């Protein structure tokens, strides 16, 4: 029987300059996934290397939160992938180890080395410099300009999210207030009805005048 184990790793550290790659062990008959939230219209590049073990094949798949496959590779060993995000959501990179049907023996864990970059870090500025014939200083200014634009977009998105959360909180508070007033009116109406009902009942039983 195949045994699948879930594994979640957050990758914000990968967006920082100087962070080349991460590595982890992938046992046979297991599945490990790495997730990260990424903004809309952002270039994402990745490079992976899977250590080979006899009888093991590793399937690599990159999907979004809707389950759309952005990249897929059977028997992944070493390679690269790239895609541009369509919307702000969580993207998932999964490695799944499968043992060959003929191999029922125990094999060592596979070593997975993965490097993921997005935004400014994913841009190949050497190709840009060649295409646009930029000097080293001009290229550095171009990179800083892209980085500044990325930071501005991040702040704009955080401001938008803050406004949405504030609107949601205000709307929720207003609804709670209306519900509280409605509940109080219902309780007062019920109490008044009980008083009149009991008064008529006691009068009918001639317990009060």
TrEMBL record:
Primary localisation category: endoplasmic reticulum
Protein name: Transmembrane emp24 domain-containing protein 10-like
GO cellular component terms given for this protein: endoplasmic reticulum membrane
SMART domains assigned to the protein according to its UniProt record, in alphabetical order: EMP24_GP25L
Compartments it resides in: Endoplasmic reticulum membrane; Membrane
Keywords assigned: Endoplasmic reticulum, Membrane, Signal, Transmembrane, Transmembrane helix
Protein family membership: Belongs to the EMP24/GP25L family.
InterPro entries documented for this protein: Emp24-like (IPR015720), GOLD_dom (IPR009038)
Ranges for domain GOLD: 31-143
Signal peptide: 1-21
Source organism: Microcaecilia unicolor
Residues spanning the membrane: 176-198
Membrane-protein topology: Single-pass type I membrane protein
């Amino acid at each position: 029987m195949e045994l699948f184990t879930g594994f979640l790793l957050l990758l914000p550290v990968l967006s920082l300059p100087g962070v080349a790659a991460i590595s982890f062990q992938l046992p046979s008959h297991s599945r490990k996934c790495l997730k990260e939230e990424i903004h809309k219209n952002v270039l994402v590049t990745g490079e992976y290397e899977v250590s080979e073990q006899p009888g093991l094949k590793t399937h690599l798949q990159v999907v979004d939160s809707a389950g759309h496959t952005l990249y897929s590779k059977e028997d992944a060993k070493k390679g690269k992938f790239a895609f541009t995000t369509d919307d702000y959501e969580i993207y998932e990179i999964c490695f799944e180890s499968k043992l060959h049907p003929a191999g029922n023996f125990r094999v060592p864990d596979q070593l997975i080395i993965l490097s993921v970059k997005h935004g400014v870090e994913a841009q190949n500025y050497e190709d840009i410099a060649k295409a646009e014939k930029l000097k080293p200083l001009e290229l550095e200014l171009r990179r800083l300009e892209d980085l500044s634009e990325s930071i501005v977009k991040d702040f704009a998105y955080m401001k938008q999210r803050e406004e949405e959360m504030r609107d949601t909180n205000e709307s929720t508070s207003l609804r709670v207030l209306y519900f509280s007033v409605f509940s109080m009116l219902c309780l007062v109406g019920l109490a008044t009805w009980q008083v009149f009902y009991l008064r008529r009942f006691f009068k009918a039983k001639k317990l009060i005048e």
